[in-house]
Amino acid sequence: MEEAETCPAQRLLKMLSGKWKAEIFRLAVEAPLRFNSLLRQIQGSNKQSLATALKELEEEGLLEKVTIKLKPLHIEYNLTEKGKALIPVFQHLEGLA
Length: 97
What we know:
Layout: H1 8-15, H2 21-30, H3 35-41, H4 47-59, E1 63-68, E2 74-79, H5 81-85, H6 87-96
Antiparallel strand pairs: 1-2
Protein name: Winged helix-turn-helix transcriptional regulator
Keywords: DNA-binding, Transcription, Transcription regulation
InterPro entries: HTH_HxlR (IPR002577), WH-like_DNA-bd_sf (IPR036388), WH_DNA-bd_sf (IPR036390)
């Protein structure tokens, strides 16, 4: 049986643990994300690690993948309502660093 978490920061930290997830979340707070843009913005990242992190953030329900059907066809990642609800917690944690 899983123990209920009472602290939103604890839940957020668990969801953002892993390579590049916190950085991706921070960038998603600012604007919708595109894969190649993330590759350029996150120093030291590679396609495999970013793809894995994005998929895991989707599975956690923090990001949603949206296909933009305008030419050229592309994919954007946006914060979900769940992700938006965690922004104040994230910002508070950033302020402690």
